[in-house]
Amino acid sequence: MPSKIIKTTTAAAVLALGLLASQPAFAVESSPDSAAFTFGVIGDIPYGEAEIAKFPSRIQDINADADLKFVAHVGDIKNGSSVCSDEYFANIRTQFDTFEHPLVFTPGDNEWVDCHRSNNGAYNPLERLDKIREVFFDQPGKTLGATMPVKSQESLGLPENVRFTQNRLAFSVLNIQGSNNSLQPWSGLGHTSATPEQLAEVDHRTGAALDQIQETFADAERRNARAVVLMTQADMFDPSQLSAATADPAKVSGFREIVQAIIEETNSFDRPVYLINGDSHVFAEDQPLAAGSPWLEVYGLSAADDLQRVTVDGSANATNYVRFSVAGNSSDVGPVLSWEKVPFAP
Predict the structure, then answer these.
(1) Helices (H), the chain
(2) Domain CATH number, residue 58
(3) pTM of the complete model
(4) At residue 339, does pLDDT exceed 80?
(5) Could you tell me the CA-to-CA distances from 85 to 89, 117, 119 in Å, in that order?
């Protein structure tokens, strides 16, 4: 918007200065971010030896996209049938450190939830989660790669849950897991139902996620944000699981409170909300909570028409990253957020 020169009286000027001083710091911080920008998202990568070998070049392809403001990895840094070793985590951390953009990472189920499996090393998943936090979140409040400050839930023991703002968009990255949000039994350790320690972790982590969702939307409302962007590993609306979830909604019961909170906050916010996730490995763009969606029956909840979801490619399909473009702050044409798949070099 073109700047205007406004003549005012001394009293009016004093009043204006007083009003400016009373505004939240965000109002001042956002002014340099009024231009359009882009960010990249990957997930479920690298899977298997061949992709592990290619991962450094994948990172370099993303680094070459110099206009990216930041990059997000929405979880699963390994496949579901390989060992969850300290050495592997250290190797991926070394690769993450080569990102030249700020890197936001949320853990996936393959690197801790499913590590009870014998071919994963028969670990206690909670011990692996502690190790993930030690290796990848050793500096809470800062991104990996290039440094970008973020607000984390370190005080709750979840440094991986972060939120931040860019150009009047509120971003919230949440540790929400596949495997029914980590409620599936640790069968590799001989359990046929969720253990007390497992249930306690799910309860704590879900409560923290609900808190952050509410805080994200409250801040977005207070700061007049143009949109909210949520990022998770879990695909809470996995098309390949719809039939099973319809037959037995308990298969997705670990997500219900979270989906309910997203619906309530989206409808109250009444501006665009975007959900970006990995987990199901196949690129998708849909509105899983729009009126008439079968997922509303699965969860037994009402609609949220303003929610747009994007699932990024992963596993064997992880041959690209998704570049999201954010419209300039003053733009009144087209959507706030648009996206395209960018192929990696062969």
Answers:
(1) 10-22, 25-29, 48-63, 86-96, 125-136, 178-182, 196-222, 242-247, 256-269, 294-299
(2) 3.60.21.10
(3) 0.90
(4) yes
(5) 6, 13, 11
